Amino acid sequence: MTILAADGVFKVFGRRPGEAVRQLRAGASRDDVRALGTPAVIDASFTVEAGETFVVMGLSGSGKSTLLRMLNGLWRPTAGTIRLGDADLGSISARDLRTLRQERVSMVFQHFALLPHRTILENAAYALAVRGVDGAERRRRAGEALEMVGLGGWEDHLPAELSGGMRQRVGLARALAAGTDVLLMDEAFSALDPLIRREMQDQLVELQQSLGKTIVFITHDLNEAMRLGDRIAVMRDGRIVQIGTSEQILSEPANDYVAQFVADVDRTRVLTAGSVMVRPRAVVVVGAGPRGALREMRDAQTSAAYLVDRNRRLLGVLRDDDVLAGQRRGVETLAELTRDEVTAVGVDAPLAEIFAPSAETPLPVPVVDDDGRLVGVIPRVTLLEAMAPTESANGDGSGGTAAAASAPPGRTNGTLSAPATAVPA
What we know:
With 425 residues, this protein is α/β, with parallel strands linked by helices. It has 17 helices and 18 strands. The chain has helices at residues 17-25, 64-71, 94-103, 120-124, 126-130, 135-148, 164-177, 194-211, 222-228, 246-251, 256-262, 267-270, 273-276, 289-300, 320-329, 355-359, 380-386, and strands at 2-13, 38-49, 53-57, 79-84, 87-88, 105-108, 182-186, 214-219, 231-236, 239-244, 283-285, 304-308, 314-319, 345-346, 365-368, 374-378, 411-412, 415-416. Strands 6-7-8-3-9-10 form a 6-stranded mixed beta sheet, with helices on both faces. Strands 2-1-4-5 form a 4-stranded antiparallel beta sheet, sandwiched between helices. α6 (135-148) crosses α7 and α14 (289-300) runs antiparallel to α15. The radius of gyration is 27 Å and the shape is elongated. 42% of the residues are buried. The model is unreliable at 393-425 (pLDDT under 50).
């Protein structure tokens, strides 16, 4: 279900913002309309689904913080629409906007925004106090939120007694205690030391797994974006130049700008087995018998096949010489001819964890789902190809579309689509 939706959103500051928007729509550049106003966001369109962590990434001046302020209703769009559920943030009344911001949207700021003379518990409960929630109820909810972020026992302390990372946890607890549908996080971890920042990222990932909040996270850090985001919107000069998963952006950058951004990313930590796997060429169901297995390998022109049960759960590997010898001996079942010489990996396994299994055997590494079903394989050459840097989508520097990137290698709309790859002997 879509929680947030932006459609053709512009934000222009200046004397004649409407005329600036008209010219921008007609193809004018940001510099062309400087005399009319300063375009901060230009023709932004995207949706954010319930339970999704949607990261907006860009350098300073790219427009990402301006976009966030429009998502919170602090600023109204110059043109276009932003909808939070059924509410149009561009036309909603000031009274309804205040109610919506209290009940449906919470903010986590870069510099904590704590009240220095109130206790940690009072800070965590502040949004509830503004809404008029009963004192006992807000203390209970604030206490639960502090426990979630690892600050149980610190309720009576003041912000000055806490480290920077702990104060940011209070800010996160305040947003969680509010119980809103959406969390908007504006460079929430960028003021923290690197180690503390990593701890806060881990904390957010763990909380999101259990709470399933809808989060819009603003950052200028690509590694943070790829670590946290289900999808990432890359902004440049006010425009969204690409939207996609971290794997899509890494494998299919829309233009040279995005390609330069991802050039130094550790691909082994971002790409997963599911993003590079291909269809196994020869798969034999356990009831096929030796004759059926040999036929399958002959048709696939390969000397080995994967053996699966009727539910496609992986049982092992069959070699043509083993099966042929078994047939000559009168063996009727394939189970006793199966070799257990390959280590399967999960769909979500990062490539960094696949090198060792790949080095142990010349066979492609099988990929299985949570139920042990064979869903693909990763030949060694595919693994090596995945590590090579990717050029921009058009290859000529002209860039690609601002829409979502194409599906990851080996998949189209979640379905295996890559050409069959032979299983080496």
